[in-house]
Amino acid sequence: MSYARHSRGGAAIAALGHLDPWEAALIRNLRLWGEGPSGQAHIRRDFDAALPGAEAERAWHHLDDLLSRIVATAARPMVWHEVHCSSVGADECVFAHLVGTASAGHLGDAALIATLLVGPAHAEHVALLAGEVGTCARRIHQSHPGLPRPQGARLH
User: Fold this and answer.
1) What are the tens digits of pLDDT across the range 2-54?
2) DSSP string spanning 31-96?
């Protein structure tokens, strides 16, 4: 496949600094998860520090299940930026919007948004998982309002 086909989802359409802190952290976690075991271990340590034991474990499993499901059932490979990039790509923005919509209780709309990332047969399940992930992400940032906003180098 050509770079042009993959670059559609990576087109920069926002900046992390303009998002709500919980959304910026969600995108950072997406990027860390995509780095593999070392990034995933980093997310788990963050969850362990922010949540009680069983809740941290549940939060990790929901995030891992959601991202694994999206990657496994995506119509095309999902594209995300480097962990420290200050830009937000199109796929990352769709992901954050999906999670935000689902965690606000709008599961029908979230399932429609999910079809931008996965096939229709998986959209409802992805929306349900996204609701769990978003609820947790919002809770972490409500109970820890002083958490730093993810920072990064200026890309453009």
Assistant:
1) 344 456 677 676 778 899 999 999 999 999 999 999 999 999 999 999 999 89
2) HHHHT-HHHHHHHHHHHHHHS-HHHHHHHHHHHHHHHHHHHHHBSS------TTBSEEEHHHHHHH
Reading the block at residue 79, the tokens are 């594209």
* Rounded Cα–Cα distance for residues 78 and 68 (Å): 11
Residue 152 counted as domain residue: no
Position 63 in a domain: yes
CA 129 to CA 106: how far, in whole Å? 13
**Looking up tokens 């229709």, which residue turns up?**
120
In a domain, 40, yes or no: yes
Instruction: Quote the pTM value.
Output: 0.85
